[in-house]
Amino acid sequence: MPANFLHRIRAVLLAILLTATFAVPALAGPFEDAVAKFANDDFSDTDEAIGAVATSGNPLAFPIISALQEGRLSADPDTKKVFVTGSDGKIIDAATGAAVDKLPDNAAAVRLNNRLRRAVEAALGGLTLLSPDPAKRIAAAQSVFKSHEESALAVIDDALAKETNKGAKAAFTEARAAILLYKPDATEVEKLEAVAVVKARGDQEAMALLTGLSGDVPPNVARAAASAITSIQSNLAMWSMVQNAWYGLSLGSVLLLAAIGLAITFGVMGVINMAHGEMVMIGAYTTFVVQEVIRTRYPGLFDYSLLIAVPLAFLVAGAIGVLIERGIIRFLYGRPLETLLATWGLSLVLQQAVRTMFGPTNREVGNPSWMSGAFELGQITITYNRLWILCFTLAVFVILLAMLRYTALGLEMRAVTQNRRMAASMGIATSRVDALTFGLGSGIAGIAGVALSQIDNVSPNLGQSYIIDSFMVVVFGGVGNLWGTLVGAFTLGIANKFLEPVAGAVLGKIAILVLIILFIQKRPRGLFALKGRAVEA
Amino acid sequence: MLTQLTHDITTMSRRRWLAATAGLVLGLAAFSNAKAQETIKVGVLHSLSGTMAISETTLKDTVLFLIDEQNKKGGVLGKKLEAVVVDPASNWPLFAEKARELITKDKVSVVFGCWTSVSRKSVLPVFKELNSILFYPVQYEGEESERNVFYTGAAPNQQAIPAVDYLMKDEKVKRWVLAGTDYVYPRTTNKILEAYLKSKGVKQEDIMINYTPFGHSDWQTIVADIKKFGSAGKKTAVVSTINGDANVPFYKELGNQGIKATDIPVVAFSVGEEELAGIDTKPLLGHLAAWNYFQSIKDPANEKFIKAWQAYTKNPKRVTNDPMEAHVIGFDMWVKAVEKVKSTDPDKVIDALPGIEAKNLTGGTSKMLPNHHITKPVFIGEIKANGQFDVVWKTPGLVAGDAWSKELDGSKDLIGDWVGKKCGNYNTKTNKCGGQGS
Questions:
Q1: 8 Å CB contact of A121 and B253
Q2: ipTM of the complex
Q3: Mind giving me the DSSP string for A207-258?
């Protein structure tokens, strides 16, 4: 950004000029004048101040700029004094570095907008290139790579010469290449080398850098850049397939999580439970309550809030499920239409109850630190929350499967759903098993709510958005078969994600619905149909 | 067969007799009731349940609050105001039914209501047929000017276009993603914006338009697409007309994939203080919103309003937002118009409203225009950690609302003028009333 650079030089000159004209002896100096500009609460003044402070070479420059980035720089609009509150709470006068006891009452944090934040980042990049911490050096080099500001070249060359850390060295080389690529007076050889370095990096930022190259480069360089762009593009196209597959898995895991409880209540028990989504919502609200308690009483436990919420959500939603089964559904077995209407009415009642208790607006559920952010795998970004949800879903699935297979309750459940009268004759309390099965399905929906609170709104309508998808998955996978639900969820997720880039989100969804309808015409019992006598029962 | 017929007749007449008696009794009761306490009834038509309850419940409370304040001042024309609240339950046809009920059964003098454009379109014929007044407080896509409706929210030239101007001038944005929920407001707004951007020399390949269903929650592909689109070496911004609920997962995904406001800023037209109140603002910091009002704006009128509102709701954390301010202005204008003509007769009030001025909460005076839109200032705010906005830019003065967009071929010659031309879609080229719309 040459314009920005000129701007800074102008700012420095202006500052020098100002000091020369007014020549206030003690406070004078371009640095002090620049600092005072932070107090003007004007974005263009702040911009000038950032440029002047960053290029001043004053040891206070780094603390001032980093304080500005973190909102710890405050200014008194009346006295024009500017203060840095250290991360340890100590306050110093930004112009002199002298310690100050406390901030004046009318001091307010210096405001930033996006343009200024970029200027701050670029300035900090320049200031931290020589930081002793390699991670900081890498981050600084990357921000130089993005801004490719010429002024940083000398420092980069210097740093590159003494760099020993491998990662930092690579980052510096790339940053140097980025600068050379945009430097008008760099030689053709230098530029060609730079293109090769950037090409080797091969990601979207490299491509942005190459495509941003203007027409006034030597023809050889332009050709090299064009071929580098094509090679990066084909590489990225391959990665985008991988990316779609990952997104599909991730969407599939969300579908599975939402549907797995329904696979029990609808799939195994045959109850058309329209209030299933509301169990998910109750799980999400349980997470909210847990986080509220933790926030007010035990803030240190925040990272564990989800672990605490999982069993609680299971218990709360499960208990409500048992109540629903005992209170309503047991009177309606074998009457699907009435069950449908009753549970649908119930879903409205539950929604309105939550709306009355917690208000109609969304509730804030925060992401614990281990659920936020992402990491790069090759050229794709994998976000932690999606990864954890995938793992969590598979864990829930395995536990549920094991429970049905190996526990006494699981055995009883299977017995009752396969042949109720026989099971009763063998001494199984079928009505108790019904209640527990329904409670289990609801409890798992509650657990799903904990996970979904991390990626969706926690509002009374949360469940509604999942109920149709859940039924779709269960019906598609084959009613009464957990493996069918698993395969169905992932198939739908992946199909959806491969359709979405081509058809758009709206048409993609419609296409999926049409496909399912056609599929159900062909195979009315879904992917994995149950065989044998259980089907007839 | 014959017995059946006689049976029918007798039941019918019996029913009719019953109905007549009931009507008489009710009528008498209503009459005596009206005598006992003469009030002016104000209809409130906002969803209190269903998907839109999240936004509309607050507006219902706002109208009740305004009525309460007005009654403390002695009401209007010496009569107390009485609110009639109905719940159209986010169900668009029910909006029309409830509107009819308010006007014919409850005999309200004015209705404050609606949020989505589809609900407004659904009640329009009712207000026209029964000749009543609707104040509509939400930013919308424009392309409409009706005699019975007063639009106190922003038209596209009072929100979308200034926001794009800001990004173009201040952030030097060259590439644009227009992302929206798939319904009439985003589609029309994006059509207007696309035409506007092209008129400013933006090429087709630098515009990406994307629609998603209501309540979309899986944004991975779209955010990755935006990232890819933004890596073409030109400054990119997202103009979001994404509807309330889908916003949270959208911003979360942006944050998780590492797209910061400094890289690709998002300017939203439907994210306000109320929507931010329920979410973790970490991933949203620095993203933008364009509105005609922000709670954080320092102005004595605003501070007084916030204080009174929080006292009324008994919640010191209750936030205020742009559509609320629109109701404040609209309510004030209606009161002034009624007092001016000393009557609540719809025809008289409708004729009196254009030209009426009311103080807005940001230090200016808004005026009702002949096209039934009002003048408003436009602010761009950045989202702060506390869920409030920091104003980074504003228009130098108030902007007059255009009923018909000047950017679209179909509407650039149309104006709404209910004072001189008595027409909502007057064609200035052919000098004829008619064409699109009514």
A1: no
A2: 0.76
A3: HHHHHT--TTS-HHHHHHHHHHHHHHHHHHHHHHHHHHHHHHHHHHHHHHHH
